[in-house]
Amino acid sequence: MTDTIFGKIIRREIPADIVYEDDLALAFRDVNPQAPTHILIIPKKPIVRLSESSQADTALMGHLLMTVKKVAEQENLSNGYRVVINNGTHGGQTVDHLHLHLLGDRFMGWPPG
Ligand code: AMP
Fold first, then answer.
1. Which atom of ligand 1 is the closest one to the Cα of 30?
2. Residue 46's pLDDT is what?
3. Taking a C-beta distance cutoff of 8 angstroms, is the pair 5, 94 a contact?
């Protein structure tokens, strides 16, 4: 099992601004926000990255997306928002624990950098 800074947040070994939690998922504010609202949604299961998930994670993946929707409603992101998963080196992933970025409260350009 890999351990990362997000594992430490799950176990409350380091502080985080947690905005949502249930049995399977945790959501907390990004420490280096790229938008006025920037929240990370993570599984409690230590999946390293999307490409290392398995068929057994199908329901969990759906749960994470529905958690994004729930947190976006909680944060009143009624003008829309962006959901990002950085996967691996070319994806720009820096923490080896799967996470979904929820970005909102500003207009998002396209294409992404
Ligand atoms: P990524 O580059 O997709 O792997 O995203 C990792 C994100 O984790 C970055 O946006 C970081 O700012 C964020 N991050 C790293 N450490 C922490 C922390 N202790 N609390 C909250 N967010 C963090």
1. 22
2. 96
3. no
5-104: CATH topology: HIT family, subunit A (3.30.428)
Q: Where are the domains of the chain?
A: 5-104
**Ligand 1: which of 3, 13, 32 to mutate, most ligand atoms within 8 Å of CB?**
32
The model's pTM is 0.98
pLDDT in the model for residue 2: 64
Following DSSP, what letter does each residue of 52-81 receive, concatenated? G--GGGHHHHHHHHHHHHHHHHHTT-TT-E
Contact 92 CB / ligand 1 (< 6 Å) = yes
Q: Is the CB of 84 under 6 A from ligand 1?
A: no
Q: pLDDT below 70 — which residues of the chain?
A: 1-2
For ligand 1, what atom is nearest to the CA of residue 38? 10
Whole-angstrom CA distances from 102 to 1, 10, 29, 72, 87 are 26, 18, 9, 8, 15
* Token pair 């409260």 in the structure block, residue: 105
